[in-house]
Amino acid sequence: MTIVRSTLSGLRVLLAFTLLLGLAYPLAVTGAGQALFGWRADGSLVRADGTPTRDRAEAVGSALVGQQFTGDAWFHPRPSAAGDGYDTLASAGSNLGPESPDLVAAITERRAQVAATEGVDPAEVPADAVTASGSGLDPDVSPAYAAIQVDRVAAARGLEPERVRELVTEHTRGRTLGVLGDPRVDVLGLNTALQAVAPALPERPE
Amino acid sequence: MSVTTSTVLAAGGQLLLLLGMLAAVHAPLGAYLARVYSSPRHTRFERGWYRAVRVDPDAEQHWRTYLLSVLGFSLASVLLLFALGRLQQHLPWTLGFTGLDPAGAWNTAVSFTTNTNWQWYSGESAAGHLLQMAGLAVQNFVSAAVGMSVAIALVRGFARSGTDARLGNFWTDLTRSVVRVLLPISVVAALVLIANGVIQNLDPHTAVATLEGGTQHVLGGPVASQEAIKELGTNGGGFFNANSAHPFENPNPWTNLLEIFLILLIPTALPRAFGIMVGDRRQGWAILGAMVGLLLVAVALTTWAELAGPGTAPQLAGAAAEGKETRFGLAGSALFGAATTGTSTGAVNAMHDSFTAPGGGVVLFDMLLGEIAPGGVGAGLYGMLVLAIVAVFVAGLMVGRTPEYLGKKIGIQEMTLVALYVLTTPAIVLIGTAVAVSVEPGLAGVQEDGPHGLSEVLYAFASAGNNNGSAFGGLTSGTPFYNTMLGLAMLAGRFVPIALVLALAGRLASQRTVPASAGTLPTHQPLFVGLVGTVALVVVGLTFVPVLSLGPVAESLS
């Protein structure tokens, strides 16, 4: 048996596998996934009021994917290295190493910025507020970061801080099964809930 | 992501949960695998399949024929994948992406064929749905199946006695690995992933207005079907650039654990199949013990490093949160990092380039070990068996008798093959790194000066040579220089060891099994497990200490 013959056998086997694994398998899983978990399979899209939808024309984004918020009336997500920030066509981390001068400078600058925006002591700014996530699309912030944003958001929307704090608690999830992951606050879910309680004045960034 | 006592306890609980899940399926899956590769019967589907592709499933192959079949199949894979990459723009479901450039298409073709899944491109901006499904996902299955087949051929070498070096049939092993093992588990895993939010559709990427009024693209793609086999086959090539850090690949802490479980599932079950097939389950336990021992050390060290967060930037930020997702936490990222580099997966749920210096050092060392803790599907088992032979050889030297393993004498020729195996990957990694840091196009891709820059290059070649595929992302590797060099490293790092393993298997199968005597070193006891683990650490340690000192060690001390 020569390499030519075995390559030809290989090609036949590979073409058969391509039909089975490259078409039949993903298409069957797509069919089953669409039928059983359609909303999830389409990307867990939500409308501006937080209700689920499968229609992209009605959606403001995915409940699972972080998006940019910069205005005072919104809870802000973490810094993002995906494109200009939360660009889903360019998911990425910064890949800066622990001794990188660029990263050190970025952290210092973000800490000062967040402290100024939230009117808190720089020491109160938690780690997730000054670091970019792995995907650049992190949908969550830590409860600590959400907590220091409450007063700003409440003031911008004319709400009692206590009411906003309640909403934060509603959108906080603990560890799965008590051991998996870290406690986290879903930023888009929280912002859609805020919008339902006290709509922000129309305000567009830039 | 602050670190408290509860964080540490949760990290421990997470690990126990993972080990519990693996333990629960270990025995049944191991027994099932042994049956899959021992049964003379073909299913009706398989009989039709063999007729359609015109191979004889019952023809016993000599090790050379087996190797030729592996190489022929892999060559066909590289050619088809190269063609798909180059011609992408002419195919349906391409989302308007253009064909890959020649060096890029070559790199990707080799990368996925060798189970490396090194990615120089971003999935969401370069690869259409058809290339992902019919090209990359197919290789995710079959490259894993090739690894399993080679491992089983080696096991047969030990199990058989006095044959004419026949090792079974590659086409049968390949087909059964896919249709009896990988495909059914993938279907179930894919559906579980979809239920948790991993997308599965054929839609394009569409721009929508965000809640605040910005613009963001809603992504589409058959992600879950690919994600399942990406982890199960220890492939690691992400649908999206951010890999398993991406919310659509890994939406919550539970899917994170599930993905780690899938990564470790087959590599930890194969030693059980090995024990059953050689007729002594204790031998399987010993191999598994060495694998899991090394893995647990890596998990402990990585978790400690990431939770403690040493280094200028982590200290300044308050935690090593750069490059990590909130939902997985520090411990969930550390556990994934240890699992993905201990196997040859290379999927990442956090950016390893941003790990702390000791954490990054551990995951790098984990890869340099040769992916045996517990290693990629198949590759981990044959890698560990080779080290077991080194261990009996070393022990034999100490007492001055011909070493034997599982009733096979380890003579000069066996040892030559083993020595070549052990030296192949380090040679690829060190020569590749040395070339890259000596020439202009190599240096051009390095993001940071000094020790971290060297770590980036070393990590890239360690990843390619060991068919891991994870990246210390700072390196700009999508250049013709790196695409070509890393492609060569992946190719040599995959097929030279496979050729040596099959040659070794052929020699072992043709030997008569000798009964154990009073002087035989028992290879199923903790002493031997410790010996194998030590051999692994010493071999890697001695080979890589100089370059590790210049990279991560220097960085840790600075």
UniProtKB/TrEMBL annotation, chain A:
Q: Does the entry feature the keyword Manganese, yes or no?
A: no
Role of this protein: Part of the high-affinity ATP-driven potassium transport (or Kdp) system, which catalyzes the hydrolysis of ATP coupled with the electrogenic transport of potassium into the cytoplasm. This subunit acts as a catalytic chaperone that increases the ATP-binding affinity of the ATP-hydrolyzing subunit KdpB by the formation of a transient KdpB/KdpC/ATP ternary complex.
Know the name of this protein? Potassium-transporting ATPase KdpC subunit
Q: Name one Pfam family in it.
A: KdpC
Question: Which keywords does this chain's UniProt record carry?
Answer: ATP-binding, Cell membrane, Ion transport, Membrane, Nucleotide-binding, Potassium, Potassium transport, Transmembrane, Transmembrane helix, Transport
Bilayer topology annotation: Single-pass membrane protein
Where is this protein found? Answer: Cell membrane
Q: Belongs to which family?
A: Belongs to the KdpC family.
Q: Sorted alphabetically, which PANTHER family does this protein's record hold?
A: POTASSIUM-TRANSPORTING ATPASE C CHAIN, POTASSIUM-TRANSPORTING ATPASE KDPC SUBUNIT
* InterPro entries with a match to the protein in the record: KdpC
What subunit structure does UniProt give? Answer: The system is composed of three essential subunits: KdpA, KdpB and KdpC.
From TrEMBL, chain B:
Q: Where in the cell is it found?
A: Cell membrane
Ranges that cross the membrane: 15-34, 66-85, 141-159, 179-199, 257-278, 285-305, 372-397, 418-439, 485-506, 527-548
The main place the protein resides is: membrane
What keywords are annotated for this sequence in UniProt? Cell membrane, Ion transport, Membrane, Potassium, Potassium transport, Transmembrane, Transmembrane helix, Transport
Membrane topology of this protein? Multi-pass membrane protein
Report the sequence similarity comment from the record: Belongs to the KdpA family.
Summary of subunit composition and partner proteins: The system is composed of three essential subunits: KdpA, KdpB and KdpC.
Outline what the protein does: Part of the high-affinity ATP-driven potassium transport (or Kdp) system, which catalyzes the hydrolysis of ATP coupled with the electrogenic transport of potassium into the cytoplasm. This subunit binds the extracellular potassium ions and delivers the ions to the membrane domain of KdpB through an intramembrane tunnel.
Instruction: Supply the name of the protein.
Output: Potassium-transporting ATPase potassium-binding subunit
User: What's the name of its gene?
Assistant: kdpA
